[in-house]
Amino acid sequence: MNTLQEKIHQQINTLPLPSQKEVLDFVLFLKNNINAEADIDYLSKDPKITQAIIDGLNTPVDECSDQLDW
Q1: 41, part of any domain
Q2: Which domain of life does the UniProt lineage start with (predicted)?
């Protein structure tokens, strides 16, 4: 029996080249989302960071600084 990777490879090889490029773009999109989810998970585990994000989102724009301290 073919492995999942082999089945995917076989199916992709039957596609025209432009469609293969779209599949590659989609795979890269998925990988980026997985990395972003890992970052969000990491940040959400620290209550101080979570609260800072919430505070920032709740700050009215006219109270925000237009200059960076760093």
Answers
A1: yes
A2: Bacteria
